[in-house]
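hey m, so remember when u said the tokens were messed up on ur end? i reran from scratch. heres the input so u can diff it against urs
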Amino acid sequence: MPTSTVVHYLKQIFLTARESGERCVPMGQVAQAMQVVPGTATTMIKGLAKNGLVEYTPRVGVSLTEEGETIAIQMLRRHRLIEYFLVETLGMDWSEIHEEAEHLEHAISDRVLRYIDAFLGHPTTDPHGDTIPSASGEWKKRTLESLSEVGEGIGVKIARVKDQDAEFLRFAETSGLMPGTRMRIVNRNASADCLELEIKEKDTPITLGMGAAEKILVERTES
């Protein structure tokens, strides 16, 4: 199995490419995602290219090879199944599971992962709403939009929380903004740059800033 650093680079390149819709990821974005200086990222990417895991073009960017993408998807599957297991089975808080999953994804065998998947009922999304790839590497496509883009009167269901910083996740949980939550936007206040939300499980509406709303992806349930 590749080292944890190699896997982390491959996962970040894969996720960044999916978010942008572009196969080639600029090196500046890679460095930012990895929280390293550009020179460090470039040195690492050159090593990955020599090992056949990425294709690197100076001043253009980097893309995953077929082998690199396979590893990225397999490890994302491991990571997200473990996160689901930690929350649903062990009762850990969703704001504290990322680092634990980072360690455990390298420690368990494929056989144990298959048992975990079966035990959990083959979930398709993790606690944050991120897609869990299938065992064959298939990636379920979903049509999601930012809560900040939804108009007044539209019913939606939260599908994914993009920002997985522990502080934001605690805020989201306290506010009832969890995947699966159904709500309706009752007012868009452009001057205050916020939304007023009517949440199905709450008696009173809540106000949410546009910055936070942009981090929450939803599916429409009605027009």
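this time it looks ok to me. The chain has eight helices and eight strands. if urs says something different then somethings off w ur setup not the seq
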